[in-house]
Design goal:
Blueprint: H1 20-36, H2 42-88, H3 95-98, H4 103-117, H5 124-130, H6 134-137, E1 141-148, E2 154-162, H7 177-183
Antiparallel strand pairs: 1-2
C-alpha cells in the first residue's frame, strides 16, 4: 500500500444520472429560489426604508436623551464634589457654583479654581500649555505702576511689559537631537 500512496489516481463514473433530467430539475430549483429572493417593488422598498429610518431615528433620540441625562448627572456630581472641596478648605459656598449649567462652564470654573489654588507655585504655565490655551499664551505680560497721591490714595497705570510670541510648535517643544538618533524618533512639528 505504501508504494502506491504517492501515485495520482483517477475516478471514472460509468453510471448515468446526468443529462436533460438533471438540467431541468436544476432549472426548476433555481427558478423557485429566484422567486423567493426576488427584490421588492419600489413602493415596498420605500416603505421599508421609511420604517427603518423612523426606527433608527427613535433609537438615536433615545441615545441622545440617555447621554444628556448622563451628562447632567455627571455635572451635578462634579458640582457637588467641588462644593465639598471648597467647604473642606473653609471657603463659604458661592452662588456662581450653583449657576454652572454646562460642561464648558464647569471646566472654566475648575481651571479658575486651580489658578487660584496653585498661585505662585509654578503650575500656571504648564496648565495653560496642557490645555492648549494659545490665546492666553500670546497675551502680553502686563505691569502696574503704582503711585502714591498727595491725598493719601493710590493711582494705578497699566502697561505692556513684554510681548509674548507663542507658536503652535511650542506646545510640545523639541526632542533632543541625541534622542532622535538613539531611538529613531521623529522631531516634533516646527522644530
Amino acid at each position: 500500500m505504501r508504494d502506491h500512496d504517492d501515485v495520482p489516481y483517477i475516478v471514472i463514473e460509468r453510471e448515468g444520472g446526468g443529462g436533460v433530467g438533471s438540467f431541468i430539475l436544476g432549472a426548476l430549483v433555481g427558478a423557485g429560489l429566484a422567486l423567493l429572493f426576488a427584490p421588492q417593488s419600489g413602493e415596498e422598498a420605500q416603505s421599508e426604508i421609511r420604517a427603518r429610518a423612523l426606527k433608527l431615528k427613535d433609537v438615536a433620540q433615545d441615545r441622545v436623551r440617555g447621554a444628556q441625562s448622563s451628562l447632567e448627572n455627571r455635572l451635578a456630581s462634579a458640582r457637588d464634589k467641588l462644593a465639598e472641596l471648597r467647604a473642606r478648605a473653609g471657603l463659604t459656598p458661592d452662588d456662581y457654583l450653583a449657576e454652572v449649567t454646562d460642561a464648558a462652564e464647569l471646566r472654566e470654573l475648575i481651571r479658575n479654581e486651580r489658578r487660584l489654588e496653585l498661585c505662585f507655585e509654578g503650575f500656571r504655565f504648564w496648565d495653560i500649555r496642557r490645555w492648549d490655551d494659545q490665546a492666553t499664551m500670546t497675551e502680553p505680560v502686563r505691569g502696574a505702576f503704582i503711585t502714591f497721591e498727595a491725598d493719601s490714595s493710590y493711582s494705578y497705570a497699566y502697561s505692556d511689559v513684554e510681548k509674548r510670541i507663542f507658536s503652535p510648535a511650542m506646545i510640545y517643544g523639541p526632542v533632543p537631537y541625541e534622542e532622535t538618533l538613539k531611538y529613531d524618533l521623529e522631531q516634533n512639528a516646527g522644530w
